[in-house]
Design a protein that fits this description.
By secondary structure, the chain is an alpha+beta fold. The chain has a domain at 10-27 and 40-85: GTP Cyclohydrolase I, domain 2. The protein contains three helices and four strands; from the N terminus they run βαβααββ. Strands 1-2-3-4 form a four-stranded antiparallel β-sheet, with helices on one face. It is elongated, with a radius of gyration of 14 Å.
Length: 108
C-alpha cells in the first residue's frame, strides 16, 4: 500500500541564514510511504502529517538535509510497518526566482 501526502504546507524556523533563524518561513513537504497493509495494520495519514509538522516546527533545524534524516528516523520509529519512505522538503520563498528543496529516499 502507498500513502501519499502532498503539499503539506506550514511555517517554521528552518535554515542557516540569520533571517531564517528569526522569521518563520513557508515549507512544503511531500511524503510517500510504502507499507504492507492488512486489515488490522494500517498507517493513519493524519497522524503522519501531524508528526511531520510538529517535528519540523519543534526542532527548528538549520539544514533541511538534517530535517529529512531526522524525519525518516522518527517516522520509522513511530510507524514501524513502513518499508520505504520518500520525503521532499521545499522552501518556496527563500530565493526570488525558484523553489529549492531536498529529497531523501529511505529503504528499511
Amino acid at each position: 500500500m502507498t500513502i501519499l501526502i502532498e503539499n503539506l504546507t506550514f511555517d517554521s524556523i528552518i535554515g542557516i541564514l540569520e533571517s531564517e533563524r528569526i522569521t518563520p518561513q513557508k515549507v512544503i513537504i511531500d511524503c510517500i510511504i510504502n507499507y504492507q497493509y492488512t486489515q488490522n495494520t494500517f498507517i493513519n495519514y493524519a497522524e503522519v502529517s501531524d508528526h511531520i509538522q510538529n517535528s519540523i516546527q519543534k526542532n527548528e533545524f538549520f539544514l533541511i538535509e538534517e530535517a529529512l534524516q531526522s524525519l525518516g528516523a522518527t517516522l520509522k520509529k513511530e510507524f514501524s510497518s513502513i518499508s520505504t519512505l520518500s520525503l521532499t522538503l521545499r522552501k518556496p520563498d527563500i530565493l526570488d526566482n525558484c523553489t529549492v528543496g531536498v529529497q531523501e529516499n529511505f529503504i528499511f
